[in-house]
UniProtKB/TrEMBL annotation:
Protein known as: Transposase
UniProt xrefs under InterPro entries: HTH-like_dom, Transposase_IS3/IS150/IS904
Domain of life per record: Bacteria
Domain HTH-like: 27-80
UniProt organism field: Paenibacillus anaericanus
Amino acid sequence: MAFAQIPRSTYYNLIKKMNRLDPDPDLKVAIKAIYDEHEGLYGYRRIRDELANREQIVNHKKIQRIMKELGLKCLVRMKKYKSYKGTVGKIASNILDRNFTAEVPDEKWVTDITEFKLFGEKLYLSPVCLAHFKLEQN
């Protein structure tokens, strides 16, 4: 104790903790089984609900602590795409009126901007297309 420079009470408390038996071995097995059963998609809330369905009421904080001890983390799923249906900003006038044939090259250019999320980042795609011109056939 003198060489570790810790109080005597701390030393004996550590010894007592190390000799203490695991109070929840069955609960750890049940949590691990539910986690594996659902392929890591269940977090502590769903595991708590699943344990309640199996008639085993456990506090959510205890489940969190056990999951942390076992190194179990819920896999976060990406949210599905939902296009915005609210009010639209400025709409450009329809000059081409769906007439995409051009008389000369570089007469008509069309573009659109698309915003999408990839790995949590916003990305913008803005392709530019040249309207094709009609070749006269004899």
